[in-house]
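Design job #97: recover the sequence.
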């Protein structure tokens, strides 16, 4: 079992950057696929990015490609989401998620992930 705690959210102007971090407790962090999701007010939770267990495979929703980057540091049990060129439509609560199954095929589904953080608010002003 793993517990996830996000940090790094905040208020930023359009065009700015933030780096979210998600620290995991528990063992075998490298065995987990990791994902970032976000939920804006009145909208469903949506997939943002994912990183495979081994690290080299990543995936992004089209709206963030070229602007966001997911990475993991297995030595620190932490996954990051670097967000550049932020836009007001990126405003949401951002959640990290983890799953130990062979779930890469279904990485964009929230139901794939067994473990979730509490979320961190990102607000982008215009």
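Job complete. Output follows.
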């Amino acid at each position: 079992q793993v517990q996830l705690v996000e940090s790094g959210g905040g208020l930023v102007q359009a065009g700015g950057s933030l780096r979210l971090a998600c620290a995991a407790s528990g063992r075998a962090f490298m065995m987990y696929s990791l994902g970032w999701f976000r939920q804006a007010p009145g909208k469903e939770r949506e997939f943002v990015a994912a990183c495979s267990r081994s690290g080299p495979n990543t995936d992004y929703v089209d709206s963030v490609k070229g602007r966001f980057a997911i990475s993991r540091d297995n030595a620190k049990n932490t996954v990051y989401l670097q967000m550049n060129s932020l836009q007001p439509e990126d405003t949401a609560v951002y959640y990290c998620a983890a799953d130990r199954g062979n779930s890469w095929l279904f990485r964009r589904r929230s139901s794939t992930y067994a473990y979730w953080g509490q979320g961190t608010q990102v607000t982008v002003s215009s």
